[in-house]
Amino acid sequence: MAIKVLIVDDSALIRSVLTEIISSQPDMEVVGVAPDPLVAREMIKKTNPDVLTLDVEMPKMDGLEFLEKLMRLRPMPVLMVSSLTERGSEITMRALELGAVDFVTKPKISIQSGMMDYAEIIADKIRIVAKARVRTRAQFLADVSQRTSGSLPALRSPLISSEKLIIVGASTGGTEAIKSFLLKMPADCPGILITQHMPEGFTKSFAKRLDTLCQISVNEAEGGERILPGHAYIAPGHSHLLLARSGANYITQLSSDEPVNRHRPSVDVLFRSAAKNAGKNAVGVILTGMGKDGAAGMLEMREAGSYNFAQDEASCVVFGMPREAIAVGATHEVAPLNDLSKLVLNYLATQGGRSLRV
């Protein structure tokens, strides 16, 4: 059965381009277009779509206000259509917090040709969003309550923090999963390297947002930084992030090499660098995401002596990446998202010669 899509955008051009892209796919159909949320509200009742594409900034009713009401009254898979601006990226981050599954970006120039250039990406994202687990408003509020309950106790062991590293990979649904994971990290946790599939421009906003919420320092990696305890480094949207060594220190390294598994940054690239340069000092974590990026690299990490965790299916928005890592034998433990931070810290504390009580 075809995926039914309702397009909500105040731009007639965007509505037309998205209609053309979606209608050209054999497994999906456009069941309606709406210029604003008020019209969309009535069309949702009439067409019962499987996926809603939603503009970030619209007249009559703010896109975020509409999304919040939608997820409370009629939860459904939503794909945000965002502008490549600082304001657009900040609003998109908030939309993901409210329950949107993923987003695509509008080109800055030549909108029609630019959108058509990545028609395949748009179609793939709609397919992913259609299958994703949607968080209800109640689940969102429960997440907020849990996040504000405080981080886990400090490790109180300099040896652990200076020698160990936590290496994280995620894709669809990963912004909220990463946030949940980092919010529980104490200020003296080991250095953390993160690759999240996200376009250039959005990773900086993502890092800034996390930095204001977490006890640890969160930054977009610049390349060449010494990896410090209590710090997390997020791969920029334009480059692969790698773990490298400079003498006795771990440092970040950026690469503009070709995409791997259709992604740059790629989780496999980060994981393979961790296998090569950290070995048993690394702990791998693979979170929600579509596809197989990270599975092969995590297996290399395990073979090099790292200990690896995967998010379980029930707590994933999309179980693709964790499933692939589990299938190739790359993981040691599979657990719900809410437990992963505690499990990682407990493992690190045990390896450091002491048990962490949480």
Automatic annotation (TrEMBL):
<feature type="domain" description="Response regulatory">
    <location>
        <begin position="4"/>
        <end position="121"/>
    </location>
</feature>
<feature type="modified residue" description="4-aspartylphosphate">
    <location>
        <position position="55"/>
    </location>
</feature>
<dbReference type="GO" id="GO:0006935">
    <property type="term" value="P:chemotaxis"/>
</dbReference>
<keyword id="KW-0597">Phosphoprotein</keyword>
<dbReference type="InterPro" id="IPR000673">
    <property type="entry name" value="Sig_transdc_resp-reg_Me-estase"/>
</dbReference>
<feature type="active site">
    <location>
        <position position="197"/>
    </location>
</feature>
<keyword id="KW-0378">Hydrolase</keyword>
<dbReference type="InterPro" id="IPR035909">
    <property type="entry name" value="CheB_C"/>
</dbReference>
<protein>
    <recommendedName>
        <fullName>Protein-glutamate methylesterase/protein-glutamine glutaminase</fullName>
        <ecNumber>3.1.1.61</ecNumber>
        <ecNumber>3.5.1.44</ecNumber>
    </recommendedName>
</protein>
<keyword id="KW-0145">Chemotaxis</keyword>
<comment type="similarity">
    <text>Belongs to the CheB family.</text>
</comment>
<dbReference type="GO" id="GO:0008984">
    <property type="term" value="F:protein-glutamate methylesterase activity"/>
</dbReference>
<dbReference type="GO" id="GO:0005737">
    <property type="term" value="C:cytoplasm"/>
</dbReference>
<comment type="function">
    <text>Involved in chemotaxis. Part of a chemotaxis signal transduction system that modulates chemotaxis in response to various stimuli. Catalyzes the demethylation of specific methylglutamate residues introduced into the chemoreceptors (methyl-accepting chemotaxis proteins or MCP) by CheR. Also mediates the irreversible deamidation of specific glutamine residues to glutamic acid.</text>
</comment>
<dbReference type="GO" id="GO:0000156">
    <property type="term" value="F:phosphorelay response regulator activity"/>
</dbReference>
<dbReference type="InterPro" id="IPR001789">
    <property type="entry name" value="Sig_transdc_resp-reg_receiver"/>
</dbReference>
<dbReference type="Pfam" id="PF01339">
    <property type="entry name" value="CheB_methylest"/>
</dbReference>
<dbReference type="GO" id="GO:0050568">
    <property type="term" value="F:protein-glutamine glutaminase activity"/>
</dbReference>
<feature type="domain" description="CheB-type methylesterase">
    <location>
        <begin position="159"/>
        <end position="351"/>
    </location>
</feature>
<dbReference type="InterPro" id="IPR008248">
    <property type="entry name" value="CheB-like"/>
</dbReference>
<feature type="active site">
    <location>
        <position position="293"/>
    </location>
</feature>
<dbReference type="Pfam" id="PF00072">
    <property type="entry name" value="Response_reg"/>
</dbReference>
<dbReference type="InterPro" id="IPR011006">
    <property type="entry name" value="CheY-like_superfamily"/>
</dbReference>
<keyword id="KW-0963">Cytoplasm</keyword>
<feature type="active site">
    <location>
        <position position="171"/>
    </location>
</feature>
